[in-house]
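stage 2 :: seqdesign
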């Protein structure tokens, strides 16, 4: 006999947890199914949280933030394993587990461990090793099973020499040499982490710049900095013709016949939806070639009572947006007026060294849309807080409309970028202009103070344009 719920959620990652809690908050009877022993999905268990913890541990223990400040150099012992850096990670992950479990219990959500497979649009079969299968039915379903690294058939993954990002937390030692295939968010992040830990790192990508999804200046600035500061070798526009593991070493061959050799090859070229075992055909749910579920603007799939949110639907594949997608999906599913759309202002952060963050339109995007825009820029080498920290690399860049100075977007490269981008996010979300930054009082010394000087720079650029065109100069506000 099956158990029936108002909502059945598959996957206890960020989207699944928040979607389940949203429906339960409004009195719905909810069941959450997770095949892993613990909740949190990739974000908590082998992705975002472990990667960020490893980054902070590496930066701290390598003394990277202190090098050159006091005439002291720090070096990481070469025989240390990744696990030696992950004690703090375990504490953070366990705390996240408790927080999620407390949240589910507080909302009286029924949690079932096991692998879920649709048998119809209204029913799932749940299987767990050593136990009888059980059937669960529901009025509404939310699929939030996330994604995993794409593993093309011609790449010989073995979990030892040729690996993907999910293998990183269990690596037995910091490799002397590491080849990272892919210049996107994950590849650049891990390249920076291992270079900070003392590995000789080479990034190989077919793209013409790093972080190609962001504006050109960001990728160029990141390449220059990781080359100068971390000693990372970057090879752009390279066509890889072969990857193999021989005698404990990874070999990466390019179309010009060049072969790179390293103890580890980390392959980070794309992801695919974790949907293969869900029986979506039985429910009439459509996916694309990479296994990502197709949804409409309400996050409804091709089957009207089944919704999907988070990494399982593809871009942007960030925990922050995944949570909001799931909340919005459940509001539409149950006719709740609480939250009808995900905000159009979504900050995007990359925890490289230095950090990179953007929100809104880039300069290239604004100009491509035909907008009459201008920029304002402040280099962090002139920022007092950055000098105190020994972190003077990077910049704050504002893109704004020339006529009314309304903010269109912002980019931050440097220490704390993924935090201070939220100042620009707030201004952008409320339709603010450069005047906010001009009038606001920022703590001194602080990194956020750079926003004020980027705004002043923008006004000065406007005045120069007006003078050059023979018009009257705007009143000086500096």
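stage 2 :: out
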């Amino acid at each position: 006999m099956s158990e029936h719920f108002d909502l059945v959620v598959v996957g206890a990652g960020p989207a699944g947890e928040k979607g389940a809690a949203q429906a339960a908050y409004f009195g719905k009877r909810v069941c959450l199914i997770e095949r892993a022993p613990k909740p949190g999905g990739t974000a908590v268990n082998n992705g975002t949280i472990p990667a960020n913890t490893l980054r902070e541990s590496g930066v701290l223990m390598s003394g990277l933030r202190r090098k050159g400040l006091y005439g002291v150099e720090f070096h990481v012992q070469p025989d240390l394993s990744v696990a030696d850096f992950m004690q703090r990670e375990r504490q953070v992950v366990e705390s996240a587990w408790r927080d999620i479990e407390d949240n589910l219990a507080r909302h009286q959500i029924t949690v079932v461990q096991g692998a879920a497979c649709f048998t119809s649009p209204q029913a799932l079969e749940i299987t767990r090793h050593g136990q009888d299968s059980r059937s669960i039915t529901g009025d509404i379903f939310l699929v939030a099973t996330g994604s995993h690294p794409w593993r093309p058939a011609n790449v010989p993954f073995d979990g030892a020499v040729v690996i993907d990002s999910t293998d990183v937390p269990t690596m037995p030692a910091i490799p002397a040499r590491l080849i990272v295939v892919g210049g996107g968010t994950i590849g650049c992040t891990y390249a920076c982490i291992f270079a900070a830990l003392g590995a000789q790192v080479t990034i190989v990508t077919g793209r013409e710049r790093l972080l190609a999804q962001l504006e050109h200046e960001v990728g160029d600035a990141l390449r220059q900095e990781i080359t100068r500061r971390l000693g990372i070798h970057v090879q752009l526009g390279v066509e890889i013709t072969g990857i193999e593991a021989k005698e404990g070493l990874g070999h990466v061959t390019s179309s010009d016949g060049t072969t790179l050799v390293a103890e580890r090859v980390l392959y980070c070229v794309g992801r695919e939806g974790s949907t293969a075992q869900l029986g979506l055909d039985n429910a009439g749910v459509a996916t694309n070639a990479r296994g990502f579920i197709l949804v409409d603007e309400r996050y409804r799939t091709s089957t009207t009572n089944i919704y999907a949110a988070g990494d399982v639907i593809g871009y942007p594949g960030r925990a922050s947006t995944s949570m909001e997608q799931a909340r919005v999906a459940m509001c539409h599913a149950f006719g709740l007026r609480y939250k009808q759309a995900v905000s159009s202002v979504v900050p995007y952060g990359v925890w490289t060294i230095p950090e990179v963050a953007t929100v809104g339109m880039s300069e290239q995007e604004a100009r491509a849309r035909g907008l009459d825009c201008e920029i304002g820029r402040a280099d962090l080498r002139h920022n007092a807080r950055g000098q105190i920290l020994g972190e003077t690399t990077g910049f704050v860049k504002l893109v704004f409309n020339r006529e009314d100075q309304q903010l269109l977007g912002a980019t931050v490269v440097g220490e704390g970028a993924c935090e201070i981008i939220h100042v620009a996010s707030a201004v952008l979300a409320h339709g603010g202009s450069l005047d906010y930054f001009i009038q606001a009082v920022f703590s001194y010394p602080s990194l956020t103070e750079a926003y004020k000087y980027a705004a002043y720079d923008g006004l000065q650029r406007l005045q120069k344009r007006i003078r050059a065109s023979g018009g009257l100069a705007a009143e000086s506000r500096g």
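stage 3 :: structure notes
- The chain is about 30% helix and 25% strand.
- The chain has three domains: 3-148+272-333, 162-268, 354-468.
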